[in-house]
Amino acid sequence: MGHAVPAIPDSLRENLAYGLGSEQAERWLADAVERAEELFEAWDLEPEQVLSGGSESLCVKCTGADGDSVLKLPASVPGGAAEIAALHAWQGDGAARVLREQPEQSVMLMNFLGWVGQGSYTLPEVLDLADRLHRADPAPYLFPALDANLARRVAWARDRFAEVSDDEALADVDAAEKILAALVDTLADGDPVLLHGDLQPKNLIVSDAGLAVVDPLPAVGPAMYDVALYVVKCPRDHALTSCQDEVLALRPELDADRLRQWCWALAVLESRPYLGDLNARRVEYIRKFRDEV
């Protein structure tokens, strides 16, 4: 073991290139590797593996005096600062703890929670996790409003459907944008809360302390956003309608029409035409409830 960054997965390079552009991604990655190797020395870390799941950061699993940890260097300094603030707000309840940080670059060292995709969890555990995250007090920190998160998702959706000239889907995006604006403006009891912002299976980890989540896109907004995004992104063998109905059975106090509006609008934004059959359940859900919402 040395103090060099281990092999970088091709999938991470591809994800960075998608978000930053090929040339900028390679320049940023070269700089991030250099900074990571400096921090291995400064913080006495032994790098083990570059994690492949991220799309806007370099994450390296390490060992050291703090035990198993993850060194994360985000491509976006403001985004990294928001993540650090959220982790401090959550205080290790459902998320990692910040062990060390370098604020000027929003670099963080976090305790390693476990591996994505290992272990199992239930929908009640997901809802309990969301509740714990939402109980955190966002007041001491400056978090963006949910509007910025949604605007980015709307722009991505428009780009995807414009590439395949899908006029019906583009009309759905226009409708979804209006629905989401109205939902954000109409807060329910207890709103707004500190949202994870990207609550979905690929970010869930079964840790020793219970279900936890990584890679937040923190924002302040209606609690139902996190729940609805999970419904839209729920495991592939789970129909969106049945997942939505299970949420309502577990949380009968939720407004069914409001949840359906959130789920429909987010299903539109998260639809991926290039996934073919894997996207079929979202398309079915969008068509089924288009007239109702």
Descriptive keywords:
293 residues, alpha+beta, 5-stranded antiparallel β-sheet, two-stranded antiparallel ribbon, 10 helices, 9 strands, 48% helix, globular
Summarize the structure.
The protein has 293 residues and is an alpha+beta fold. It has helices at residues 10-20, 22-42, 77-90, 123-134, 146-163, 167-185, 224-233, 240-250, 256-270, 280-289; strands at residues 46-50, 57-63, 69-74, 98-102, 107-111, 193-195, 204-207, 210-213, 219-221. The relative contact order is 0.11.
User: Helices and strands: which structural class?
Assistant: alpha+beta
Rg value: 19 Å
How many strands, what sense, and barrel or not for the largest sheet? 5 strands, antiparallel
Strand order of the largest sheet: 1-2-3-5-4
Mean pLDDT figure:
93
- Work out the number of β strands: 9
User: Which segments are poorly predicted (pLDDT under 50) over 5 or more consecutive residues?
Assistant: none
Give the CA-based shape.
Answer: globular
H-E string: HHEEEHEEHHHEEEEHHHH
Termini gap: 56 Å
Descriptive overview:
The chain has 293 residues and is of the alpha+beta class. It is 48% helix and 14% strand. Strands 1-2-3-5-4 form a five-stranded antiparallel β-sheet, sandwiched between helices. Strands 6-9 form a two-stranded antiparallel ribbon. A hairpin with a 4-residue loop joins strand 4 and strand 5. Helix 1 crosses helix 2 and helix 9 crosses helix 10. It is globular. It starts with 9 loop residues before the first helix and ends with a helix. The model has no long low-confidence stretch (mean pLDDT 93).
